């Protein structure tokens, strides 16, 4: 029977590294990480952020990262842009090297409390500021992806009203986002909550426009990925080695590990798309997960990374 094609957005070089405490990760390490991921078959990846380095020091140097990486054909190397200032900085770079990226991600959240912490404004204010950013990016020929954070629980205001998730996702699509990624930023969502949230969002938004972004703090992320797939979502954000966390989501750990998603879907009715023999190489991703984790002074946080490496 025909398989359902699943797209992976590899966020390890952005979500994965943005929260690292301690020494600033060198540009060369980020460049090598991204090059390895693309060679392993990843075709959608986040290369960094044009955010304030005072707010998120590890994402300083994203311009140098974009200049340093190999740009493989068919691979989207996207960057997070929080505001007009970030877009201006990106455009200044693209003025001299127009092919460095073809995609930005803009981000907001389902609660005012999270947006205050992450973007220093309310949800309504953030949406208002993002409209001209999304427009200018599209006018320049860039694809725009949107994020809604804290779709299940908010670290500051608790339980989230799924109606707000639906409204915010709809607004991001209305301003031209080709896709909206729904983030369980805290990583404590349970499969039945993901299902309820998606059912609410799908009342107003076609499921083809949605992606799932699950942090794995409570160990439910793979189950949440499967739940999202069963509800028709076909794009999943994941992070090599399970790296990551949001600096404004205290205690939250990394995204679902890319290795763990690949492993869970092997042989199923879902086929992960990629450029390594039509998919993404599981063993390659396991190796990259260990390589980057050891660079950061720890073991790979991926569950399947441990037994597969031992083989
Ligand atoms: P603000 O302080 O309100 O901004 O922060 P401002 O406009 O008042 O500017 C303050 C200073 O920052 C000024 O510099 C600006 O020039 C500078 P100063 O005059 O003090 O020297 N500035 C910038 N510098 C570089 N790049 C910029 C930029 N903008 C202003 N783009 C701001 C507002 C949006 C800048 C700040 O709140 C910010 O950078 N926030 C980003 C937070 C962030 O990156 N969070 C992590 C990503 S989101 C995430 O991880 C969730 C996700 O994974 C999904 C999920 O899991 O849910 C996507
Ligand atoms: Mg995240």
Structural notes for this entry:
The chain is of the alpha/beta class and 311 residues long. The longest helix has 17 residues, at 123-139. It has a 9-stranded parallel beta sheet with strand order 2-3-4-5-8-9-10-1-11. Helix content is 41%, strand content 17%. It has helices at residues 12-18, 27-39, 62-68, 84-96, 112-119, 123-139, 162-174, 191-201, 221-230, 258-265, 282-295, 305-310, and strands at residues 4-10, 44-49, 76-80, 103-109, 143-149, 153-154, 158-159, 179-184, 210-214, 235-238, 270-272. Helix 4 links the parallel strand 3 and strand 4 (103-109). The two termini are 32 Å apart. The chain has 12 helices and 11 strands. Helix 10 packs antiparallel against helix 11 (282-295). The relative contact order is 0.15. The structure holds 3-hydroxy-3-methylglutaryl-coenzyme A and magnesium ion. Residues 15, 183, 185, 213, 246 line the site of magnesium ion. It is an enzyme of class 4 (lyase). InterPro entries: Aldolase_TIM, HMGL, PYR_CT.
Ligand catalogue: 3-hydroxy-3-methylglutaryl-coenzyme A, magnesium ion
Work out the helicity level.
Answer: 40-55%
Categorize the overall geometry.
globular
**Beta-strand content:** 15-25%
The assigned structural class equals: alpha/beta
Distance between the ends: 32 Å
Uncertain segments of ≥5 residues (pLDDT<50)? none
Q: Could you tell me the radius of gyration in angstroms? A: 18 Å
- Overall mean pLDDT score? 96
For the largest beta sheet, what order do the strands appear in spatially?
Answer: 2-3-4-5-8-9-10-1-11
Number of helices: 12
């Amino acid at each position: 029977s025909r398989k359902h094609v699943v797209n992976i957005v590899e966020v390890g070089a952005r979500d994965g590294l943005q929260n690292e405490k301690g020494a600033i990760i060198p540009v060369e390490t980020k460049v090598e990480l991204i090059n390895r991921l693309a060679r392993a078959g990843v075709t959608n990846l986040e290369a960094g952020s044009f955010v304030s380095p005072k707010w998120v020091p590890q994402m300083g140097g994203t311009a140098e990262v974009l200049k340093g990486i190999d740009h493989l054909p068919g691979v989207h190397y996207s960057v997070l842009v929080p505001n007009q200032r970030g877009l201006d900085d990106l455009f200044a770079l693209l003025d001299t090297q127009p092919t460095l990226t073809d995609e930005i991600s803009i981000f907001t959240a389902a609660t005012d409390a999270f947006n205050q912490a992450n973007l220093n404004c309310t949800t309504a204010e953030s949406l208002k500021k993002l409209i001209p950013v999304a427009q200018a990016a599209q006018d320049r020929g860039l694809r725009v992806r949107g994020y809604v954070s804290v779709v299940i629980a908010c670290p500051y205001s608790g339980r989230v009203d799924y109606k707000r998730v639906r409204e915010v996702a709809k607004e991001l699509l209305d301003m031209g986002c080709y896709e909206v990624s729904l983030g369980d930023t805290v990583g404590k969502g349970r499969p039945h909550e993901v299902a309820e949230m998606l059912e609410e969002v799908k009342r107003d938004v076609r499921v083809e426009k949605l992606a799932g972004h699950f942090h794995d703090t409570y160990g439910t992320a793979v189950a949440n990925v499967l739940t999202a797939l069963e509800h028709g979502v076909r794009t999943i954000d994941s992070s090599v080695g399970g790296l990551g966390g949001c600096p404004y989501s205290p205690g939250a750990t990394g995204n679902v590990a890319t290795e763990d998603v690949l492993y869970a879907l092997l042989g199923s009715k879902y086929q992960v798309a990629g450029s390594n023999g039509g998919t993404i190489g599981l063993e390659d991703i396991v190796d990259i997960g260990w390589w980057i984790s050891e660079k950061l002074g720890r073991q790979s946080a991926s569950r399947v990374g441990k037994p597969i490496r031992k083989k």
